[in-house]
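Below is how a single chain appears once it has passed through the pipeline. First comes the sequence as given, then the structure the pipeline wrote out for it. We keep one example in the README because the format questions we get most often are answered faster by looking than by reading.
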Amino acid sequence: MPRPSRTADLIKVGLYAIAVVLVNMAAMTLFARIDLTRGQALSLSEESRRVVATLSEPLTIDVFFSRNLPPPYNAVEQALRDLLEEYAQHNSRFFSYRFRDVSAEDGDMTAEARENQKLAAAFGIHPVQVQAVEKDEVKFQRAYMSLVIIHGDLIEQVANITTVDGLEYRLTTAIRKMNHKISALLRLTEKVQVRLVISSALKAVAPLMGLKGMADLPAEVEAAVNALNAKTYGKLAFSFVDPPDDAKLEELSQADNLLFLNWPASNDGRLQAGRGVIGLVVEHRGRKITLPLIDIVRLPILG
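Resulting structure:
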């Protein structure tokens, strides 16, 4: 039986395929190791200063850190504040940070702190258990000690900041990786082509295959691409192609890895013999990824 893709699922998968193409084609995941040897404890390394200075789009760090923690954790928050302030001094235009209040006041949780804890959970950040010694008695308390970096549509989590050792390396590595992804998109001189190919002849057999909404696919995929364009700096270009049924149709199917369908006329004469292709092609400089839009095990009309 045919297994038609639901339109919503199709668009989601299509968007994922587009994102994968952008990542691969822009070479976003190739990063060199960073040398963050610091000559002074209270100054950023030269590499960290260079990385933050190259930001060309806003980057924000949201810090979720509990107050009044026991030693040695009580010194980590201030050290983190000092470190983030140094980053900000080297690019105040595009680098910013904020500490979100997640602590209770005198045992009572404020509405703001409660909302910030919900926000932390939405980012995948949860409190950890830390140990405190009071009057020779070991106690445990739950504490938030994490942050998230937000750059465009990208989010990176830096969790469990229990020490400042290696913290600059963790932050600069994350900032550099995210900045490379954004910069790679901005550097694309040619748009990524998103081409929806559907033969009009398929409209005749779509009802017999149990496929609904095929006529709406061009508009829905175009809307999905336009929505993604808002997050990818307009680097996508959509087009719809209804290829002619000629000798080159099968050749087109092979070149773009499109699904090729060929069906006979029905015995009652209601369906004429025909053929057609369908697929979503994402292409940039000759490199292609094709997303199949129909998964068919057996067509009833073919017996």
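Residues 1-5, 27-35, 296-303 have pLDDT under 50 and may be disordered.

See the next section for the split statistics.
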